[in-house]
Write a structure and sequence with these properties.
12 strands; about 210 residues; 3-stranded antiparallel β-sheet; single chain; alpha+beta
């Protein structure tokens, strides 16, 4: 819209229209390609080259030791599926025996794809069985298990991506894109990409596109 942009956004309070000089888009690549109108072909080709693996998170909350014992109800789950990808390496950094805590639990492709349409309680039960196999001392202390599915959970390195890779972080005029797919497929790369795009844009002499400062 002239020298700026008009952003039409949906929010819990209804649709909003925002006028902006600089747009930062942190949506997954396929969604960004769908909602940003007028992107040039080179940018669309780069965004469409990004493929995602699915991700299911099942954090497990445990009670402090010494509280009344509780049994987490279990239902059928798939015996040959790996319901936890990292052997429960991450957890809240406190004394779980004294205070309780939460163990990070997640499934990544290809396991998440197998159980994607399974009932929530089946996926939770599979995660609990894996958790208790690794840490049987928590058998009577599980308070609850949550679940969340991310269809665009993890950018993957697939054939044909690398020829587009340098273009993923390239701005289009004053539209900058941020996310794990623009650098490396992890949170450590996603966060700096947001900081980079948050800098004031500057126009590079002889180029039509903007560069992030």
């Amino acid at each position: 819209n002239g020298d700026g942009y008009i952003v039409e956004a949906d929010s819990p309070d209804g649709p909003r229209t925002i006028a902006a000089r600089h747009v930062v888009c942190a949506l997954p690549a396929p969604i960004a390609a769908r909602v940003l109108s007028g992107l040039p072909g080179w940018k669309l080709d780069a965004l469409h080259a990004v493929h995602y693996g699915r991700w299911i998170s099942t954090p497990i909350v445990v009670a402090p030791a010494g509280e009344p014992s509780r049994t987490h109800p279990l239902v059928a789950s798939r015996p040959l599926v790996r319901y936890n990808a990292d052997s429960f390496m991450a957890r809240t950094p406190n004394d779980s025996d004294a205070e309780g805590g939460c163990f990070h639990s997640f499934m990544a492709d290809p396991a998440a794809k197998v159980v994607w349409d399974d009932p929530d309680e089946s996926v939770k039960s599979g995660a609990v069985r894996a958790f208790l196999a690794a840490m049987p001392q928590y058998a009577d202390r599980i308070v609850r298990v949550e679940i969340h599915r991310w269809k665009y959970g993890h950018p993957q390195y697939v054939r044909g991506l690398m020829k587009h890779f340098p273009l993923l972080a390239e701005p289009v005029d004053a539209i900058c894109l941020a996310g794990a797919y623009t650098q490396q497929a992890n949170m450590e790369a996603a966060s700096p990409s947001g900081q980079r795009t948050g800098q004031p844009p500057r126009r590079t002499p002889g180029r039509r596109r903007w560069d992030a400062g």
